Amino acid sequence: MSRVYAVAGDGSIDFGFAGRVFVAELTTDEASRALERVLEGSYFKEANVTVSIANFVEGDVLLTGALNSPGTLPFRGDSILTLMEAIFRAGGLQERAAGDRVRILRWVPGGSMERQAIEVNVQAMLDKMDFSKDQYLRPRDIVVVPHRGGEEEGRNEFLALGEVHKPGFHPYTPELDIIKVVTRVGGLGEFADWDGARILRPRPSGDYSVVPLNLNRLFGVADMSMNLLLQPGDIFFVPSTRNLVRAQVYLLGEVNKRGAVSLGSGPNATVARVILSQGGMTDFANASRVQIQRTAPDGSKKSMQVDVGRILKQGTFEDDVPLQDGDVVIVPEKGILGL
Asked: pTM for this one?
Protein backbone atom coordinates (compact mmCIF):
# COMPACT_ATOMS: atom_id res chain seq x y z
CA MET A 1 0.00 0.00 0.00
CA SER A 2 3.04 2.27 0.02
CA ARG A 3 2.63 4.75 -2.83
CA VAL A 4 1.68 8.34 -3.63
CA TYR A 5 -2.00 9.11 -2.95
CA ALA A 6 -3.55 12.17 -4.59
CA VAL A 7 -5.85 14.23 -2.34
CA ALA A 8 -9.10 14.69 -4.25
CA GLY A 9 -11.18 17.85 -4.38
CA ASP A 10 -13.34 16.63 -1.49
CA GLY A 11 -10.28 16.24 0.75
CA SER A 12 -10.13 12.44 0.62
CA ILE A 13 -7.71 9.82 -0.70
CA ASP A 14 -8.57 6.47 -2.24
CA PHE A 15 -6.92 4.19 0.34
CA GLY A 16 -7.12 1.00 -1.70
CA PHE A 17 -9.34 -1.73 -0.27
CA ALA A 18 -10.02 0.41 2.81
CA GLY A 19 -12.02 2.90 0.76
CA ARG A 20 -11.90 6.70 0.82
CA VAL A 21 -10.43 8.40 3.87
CA PHE A 22 -10.64 12.15 4.52
CA VAL A 23 -7.27 13.73 5.28
CA ALA A 24 -7.72 17.40 4.32
CA GLU A 25 -6.78 19.91 7.05
CA LEU A 26 -4.82 17.22 8.96
CA THR A 27 -1.12 17.36 9.76
CA THR A 28 0.99 14.47 8.48
CA ASP A 29 1.00 12.94 12.00
CA GLU A 30 -2.78 13.31 12.29
CA ALA A 31 -3.24 11.74 8.85
CA SER A 32 -0.99 8.83 9.87
CA ARG A 33 -3.09 8.16 12.99
CA ALA A 34 -6.34 8.43 11.00
CA LEU A 35 -5.15 5.85 8.47
CA GLU A 36 -3.94 3.56 11.25
CA ARG A 37 -7.38 3.66 12.88
CA VAL A 38 -9.03 2.72 9.57
CA LEU A 39 -6.70 -0.26 9.08
CA GLU A 40 -6.90 -1.43 12.70
CA GLY A 41 -10.68 -1.10 12.75
CA SER A 42 -11.28 -3.76 10.11
CA TYR A 43 -8.11 -5.30 8.75
CA PHE A 44 -5.07 -5.46 11.05
CA LYS A 45 -4.37 -5.99 14.73
CA GLU A 46 -1.71 -3.30 14.61
CA ALA A 47 -0.90 -0.89 11.80
CA ASN A 48 1.98 1.56 11.41
CA VAL A 49 1.56 4.33 8.86
CA THR A 50 3.95 7.12 7.96
CA VAL A 51 2.77 10.03 5.81
CA SER A 52 4.92 12.58 4.02
CA ILE A 53 4.10 15.26 1.45
CA ALA A 54 5.10 14.32 -2.09
CA ASN A 55 3.90 17.46 -3.91
CA PHE A 56 2.22 20.65 -2.79
CA VAL A 57 -0.60 22.23 -4.76
CA GLU A 58 0.61 25.19 -6.79
CA GLY A 59 -1.50 27.93 -8.29
CA ASP A 60 -1.38 31.66 -8.78
CA VAL A 61 -3.41 33.93 -6.55
CA LEU A 62 -5.33 36.33 -8.78
CA LEU A 63 -5.77 39.94 -7.59
CA THR A 64 -8.10 42.22 -9.47
CA GLY A 65 -10.14 45.38 -9.11
CA ALA A 66 -9.15 48.66 -7.44
CA LEU A 67 -5.46 47.86 -6.93
CA ASN A 68 -2.51 49.83 -8.26
CA SER A 69 -0.88 46.77 -9.85
CA PRO A 70 -3.48 43.98 -10.20
CA GLY A 71 -2.29 40.65 -11.54
CA THR A 72 -1.17 37.24 -10.34
CA LEU A 73 1.16 36.07 -7.58
CA PRO A 74 2.77 32.61 -7.81
CA PHE A 75 1.95 30.56 -4.73
CA ARG A 76 2.76 27.10 -3.37
CA GLY A 77 0.73 25.32 -0.74
CA ASP A 78 3.74 25.01 1.59
CA SER A 79 4.33 28.78 1.71
CA ILE A 80 2.52 31.50 3.66
CA LEU A 81 0.80 34.45 2.02
CA THR A 82 -1.72 36.69 3.75
CA LEU A 83 -4.33 38.92 2.17
CA MET A 84 -2.62 42.10 3.36
CA GLU A 85 0.77 40.96 2.04
CA ALA A 86 -0.80 40.14 -1.34
CA ILE A 87 -2.46 43.58 -1.51
CA PHE A 88 0.82 45.33 -0.67
CA ARG A 89 2.60 43.28 -3.36
CA ALA A 90 -0.10 44.41 -5.80
CA GLY A 91 0.75 48.06 -5.15
CA GLY A 92 -1.86 48.71 -2.48
CA LEU A 93 -5.42 49.99 -2.75
CA GLN A 94 -6.42 52.65 -5.25
CA GLU A 95 -7.98 55.88 -3.99
CA ARG A 96 -11.48 54.76 -5.07
CA ALA A 97 -11.11 51.25 -3.64
CA ALA A 98 -13.93 49.93 -1.47
CA GLY A 99 -11.47 48.53 1.02
CA ASP A 100 -14.21 47.59 3.45
CA ARG A 101 -15.67 45.07 0.98
CA VAL A 102 -12.64 43.09 -0.24
CA ARG A 103 -13.59 39.53 -1.16
CA ILE A 104 -11.61 36.31 -1.31
CA LEU A 105 -13.19 33.78 -3.67
CA ARG A 106 -12.21 30.26 -2.67
CA TRP A 107 -13.16 26.76 -3.75
CA VAL A 108 -15.77 25.18 -1.50
CA PRO A 109 -14.49 21.93 0.06
CA GLY A 110 -16.28 18.77 -0.97
CA GLY A 111 -15.43 18.50 -4.65
CA SER A 112 -18.16 20.87 -5.86
CA MET A 113 -17.66 23.58 -8.46
CA GLU A 114 -18.74 26.36 -6.11
CA ARG A 115 -16.68 29.14 -4.58
CA GLN A 116 -17.30 30.72 -1.22
CA ALA A 117 -16.84 34.46 -0.75
CA ILE A 118 -14.94 35.64 2.33
CA GLU A 119 -15.49 39.37 2.89
CA VAL A 120 -12.72 41.24 4.71
CA ASN A 121 -12.64 44.84 5.92
CA VAL A 122 -9.11 45.67 4.80
CA GLN A 123 -9.65 49.42 5.24
CA ALA A 124 -10.38 48.99 8.95
CA MET A 125 -7.17 47.00 9.41
CA LEU A 126 -5.20 49.77 7.70
CA ASP A 127 -6.91 52.56 9.65
CA LYS A 128 -6.34 50.90 13.05
CA MET A 129 -3.08 49.13 12.12
CA ASP A 130 -4.65 46.02 13.62
CA PHE A 131 -4.01 42.97 11.41
CA SER A 132 -5.51 40.38 13.73
CA LYS A 133 -8.31 39.74 11.21
CA ASP A 134 -5.96 39.24 8.26
CA GLN A 135 -6.60 36.09 6.25
CA TYR A 136 -4.21 33.40 5.03
CA LEU A 137 -4.58 32.84 1.29
CA ARG A 138 -4.58 29.51 -0.50
CA PRO A 139 -3.42 28.54 -4.00
CA ARG A 140 -5.95 29.54 -6.68
CA ASP A 141 -7.74 32.08 -4.49
CA ILE A 142 -9.16 35.11 -6.29
CA VAL A 143 -9.01 38.48 -4.49
CA VAL A 144 -11.50 41.09 -5.71
CA VAL A 145 -11.24 44.70 -4.55
CA PRO A 146 -14.37 46.59 -5.72
CA HIS A 147 -14.45 50.28 -6.57
CA ARG A 148 -16.54 52.66 -4.50
CA GLY A 149 -19.98 52.56 -6.05
CA GLY A 150 -19.03 49.23 -7.56
CA GLU A 151 -22.19 47.53 -6.38
CA GLU A 152 -24.17 49.83 -8.67
CA GLU A 153 -21.55 49.81 -11.43
CA GLY A 154 -21.38 46.02 -11.29
CA ARG A 155 -24.87 45.82 -12.74
CA ASN A 156 -23.42 47.02 -16.04
CA GLU A 157 -20.06 45.23 -15.96
CA PHE A 158 -18.53 41.81 -16.04
CA LEU A 159 -15.05 40.83 -14.86
CA ALA A 160 -12.56 38.82 -16.96
CA LEU A 161 -9.76 36.98 -15.16
CA GLY A 162 -7.01 34.50 -15.95
CA GLU A 163 -5.63 33.66 -19.38
CA VAL A 164 -7.29 36.46 -21.34
CA HIS A 165 -5.48 39.25 -23.18
CA LYS A 166 -7.55 42.02 -21.57
CA PRO A 167 -8.26 41.11 -17.92
CA GLY A 168 -10.34 43.43 -15.78
CA PHE A 169 -13.80 44.96 -15.85
CA HIS A 170 -15.65 45.28 -19.17
CA PRO A 171 -19.03 46.84 -20.06
CA TYR A 172 -21.96 44.48 -19.98
CA THR A 173 -24.43 44.60 -22.86
CA PRO A 174 -27.62 42.57 -23.37
CA GLU A 175 -27.30 39.25 -25.22
CA LEU A 176 -23.61 39.03 -24.36
CA ASP A 177 -22.64 35.43 -25.11
CA ILE A 178 -19.31 33.62 -24.65
CA ILE A 179 -18.16 34.12 -28.26
CA LYS A 180 -18.69 37.88 -27.89
CA VAL A 181 -16.99 37.83 -24.48
CA VAL A 182 -13.87 36.11 -25.85
CA THR A 183 -13.72 38.73 -28.61
CA ARG A 184 -14.20 41.58 -26.14
CA VAL A 185 -11.38 40.40 -23.88
CA GLY A 186 -8.97 40.14 -26.82
CA GLY A 187 -8.91 36.37 -27.07
CA LEU A 188 -7.29 33.75 -24.87
CA GLY A 189 -3.69 33.55 -23.70
CA GLU A 190 -1.09 30.99 -24.74
CA PHE A 191 -1.56 28.91 -21.60
CA ALA A 192 -5.38 29.01 -21.47
CA ASP A 193 -7.02 25.88 -20.07
CA TRP A 194 -9.71 25.60 -22.73
CA ASP A 195 -11.53 22.78 -20.95
CA GLY A 196 -11.50 24.43 -17.52
CA ALA A 197 -13.06 27.85 -18.17
CA ARG A 198 -15.99 28.87 -16.02
CA ILE A 199 -18.42 31.62 -15.12
CA LEU A 200 -18.53 32.69 -11.46
CA ARG A 201 -22.04 33.97 -10.87
CA PRO A 202 -22.89 36.01 -7.75
CA ARG A 203 -25.68 34.81 -5.51
CA PRO A 204 -27.86 36.99 -3.26
CA SER A 205 -26.06 35.42 -0.29
CA GLY A 206 -22.77 36.89 -1.50
CA ASP A 207 -21.26 33.55 -2.53
CA TYR A 208 -20.62 32.52 -6.12
CA SER A 209 -21.96 29.57 -8.04
CA VAL A 210 -19.81 28.15 -10.82
CA VAL A 211 -21.02 27.46 -14.36
CA PRO A 212 -18.48 25.20 -16.15
CA LEU A 213 -17.49 26.06 -19.72
CA ASN A 214 -15.69 23.89 -22.27
CA LEU A 215 -14.25 26.38 -24.76
CA ASN A 216 -12.61 23.55 -26.67
CA ARG A 217 -16.06 22.18 -27.50
CA LEU A 218 -17.38 25.64 -28.36
CA PHE A 219 -14.57 26.72 -30.68
CA GLY A 220 -13.27 23.29 -31.69
CA VAL A 221 -16.44 21.49 -32.75
CA ALA A 222 -18.95 24.39 -32.72
CA ASP A 223 -20.95 23.01 -29.79
CA MET A 224 -23.26 25.99 -29.33
CA SER A 225 -24.61 24.62 -26.05
CA MET A 226 -21.41 26.11 -24.56
CA ASN A 227 -22.20 29.58 -25.96
CA LEU A 228 -23.92 30.71 -22.77
CA LEU A 229 -25.19 34.18 -21.99
CA LEU A 230 -23.41 36.24 -19.36
CA GLN A 231 -25.28 38.12 -16.66
CA PRO A 232 -24.31 41.50 -15.13
CA GLY A 233 -21.72 41.06 -12.39
CA ASP A 234 -20.49 37.68 -13.69
CA ILE A 235 -16.81 36.76 -13.60
CA PHE A 236 -15.49 35.09 -16.76
CA PHE A 237 -12.50 33.03 -15.61
CA VAL A 238 -10.04 31.11 -17.81
CA PRO A 239 -7.46 29.26 -15.69
CA SER A 240 -3.90 28.67 -16.79
CA THR A 241 -2.53 25.24 -17.66
CA ARG A 242 0.59 26.29 -15.74
CA ASN A 243 -1.45 26.01 -12.53
CA LEU A 244 -2.71 22.52 -13.21
CA VAL A 245 -1.35 19.44 -11.53
CA ARG A 246 -0.11 18.31 -14.91
CA ALA A 247 -1.03 14.96 -16.34
CA GLN A 248 1.87 13.02 -17.86
CA VAL A 249 2.25 10.61 -20.74
CA TYR A 250 5.30 8.59 -21.69
CA LEU A 251 6.85 8.40 -25.16
CA LEU A 252 8.88 5.29 -26.01
CA GLY A 253 10.39 3.78 -29.13
CA GLU A 254 11.26 5.55 -32.35
CA VAL A 255 10.67 9.14 -31.27
CA ASN A 256 13.27 11.87 -31.18
CA LYS A 257 12.63 12.73 -27.52
CA ARG A 258 11.75 9.80 -25.28
CA GLY A 259 10.46 10.06 -21.75
CA ALA A 260 7.73 11.72 -19.71
CA VAL A 261 5.81 14.59 -21.31
CA SER A 262 3.51 16.99 -19.43
CA LEU A 263 0.09 16.82 -21.01
CA GLY A 264 -1.64 20.13 -21.58
CA SER A 265 -5.33 20.65 -22.18
CA GLY A 266 -7.33 21.58 -25.24
CA PRO A 267 -6.71 20.57 -28.84
CA ASN A 268 -3.01 19.76 -28.42
CA ALA A 269 -3.46 16.88 -25.95
CA THR A 270 -3.56 14.20 -28.66
CA VAL A 271 -1.11 11.52 -29.72
CA ALA A 272 0.01 12.99 -33.07
CA ARG A 273 0.39 16.50 -31.68
CA VAL A 274 2.31 15.33 -28.62
CA ILE A 275 4.71 13.37 -30.84
CA LEU A 276 5.19 16.47 -33.02
CA SER A 277 5.81 18.64 -29.94
CA GLN A 278 8.67 16.31 -28.96
CA GLY A 279 10.50 16.52 -32.26
CA GLY A 280 8.56 13.93 -34.23
CA MET A 281 9.60 10.38 -35.10
CA THR A 282 12.87 8.90 -36.30
CA ASP A 283 13.48 7.62 -39.85
CA PHE A 284 13.04 4.07 -38.56
CA ALA A 285 9.56 4.64 -37.07
CA ASN A 286 6.55 2.61 -38.15
CA ALA A 287 4.20 5.59 -37.97
CA SER A 288 1.16 3.57 -39.04
CA ARG A 289 1.24 1.28 -35.99
CA VAL A 290 1.68 3.62 -33.03
CA GLN A 291 0.44 1.99 -29.84
CA ILE A 292 -1.27 3.65 -26.86
CA GLN A 293 -1.25 1.57 -23.68
CA ARG A 294 -3.78 2.74 -21.10
CA THR A 295 -4.72 1.63 -17.60
CA ALA A 296 -8.49 1.42 -17.11
CA PRO A 297 -10.16 2.50 -13.80
CA ASP A 298 -10.45 -1.17 -12.77
CA GLY A 299 -6.69 -1.63 -13.18
CA SER A 300 -6.86 -3.61 -16.41
CA LYS A 301 -4.56 -2.74 -19.30
CA LYS A 302 -5.92 -1.71 -22.67
CA SER A 303 -4.14 -1.03 -25.94
CA MET A 304 -5.14 0.84 -29.08
CA GLN A 305 -3.40 1.39 -32.39
CA VAL A 306 -3.28 4.74 -34.20
CA ASP A 307 -2.14 5.43 -37.76
CA VAL A 308 -0.22 8.61 -36.91
CA GLY A 309 1.51 8.54 -40.29
CA ARG A 310 -1.79 8.95 -42.13
CA ILE A 311 -2.93 11.70 -39.76
CA LEU A 312 0.25 13.68 -40.36
CA LYS A 313 0.37 13.02 -44.11
CA GLN A 314 -3.27 13.90 -44.79
CA GLY A 315 -3.70 16.47 -42.03
CA THR A 316 -6.75 14.62 -40.68
CA PHE A 317 -6.28 15.73 -37.09
CA GLU A 318 -9.97 15.12 -36.44
CA ASP A 319 -8.99 11.42 -36.35
CA ASP A 320 -6.30 12.07 -33.74
CA VAL A 321 -6.75 10.30 -30.39
CA PRO A 322 -6.90 12.33 -27.12
CA LEU A 323 -4.41 11.19 -24.49
CA GLN A 324 -5.02 10.66 -20.79
CA ASP A 325 -2.84 10.85 -17.71
CA GLY A 326 -0.53 7.84 -17.50
CA ASP A 327 -0.83 6.77 -21.15
CA VAL A 328 2.23 5.10 -22.65
CA VAL A 329 2.79 5.88 -26.35
CA ILE A 330 5.02 3.40 -28.16
CA VAL A 331 6.28 4.09 -31.68
CA PRO A 332 7.55 0.75 -33.05
CA GLU A 333 10.42 0.25 -35.46
CA LYS A 334 9.86 -0.72 -39.07
CA GLY A 335 10.32 -4.37 -39.83
CA ILE A 336 13.86 -5.20 -41.01
CA LEU A 337 14.52 -8.10 -43.37
CA GLY A 338 17.40 -10.39 -42.41
CA LEU A 339 20.11 -10.93 -45.03
From this structure: 0.50
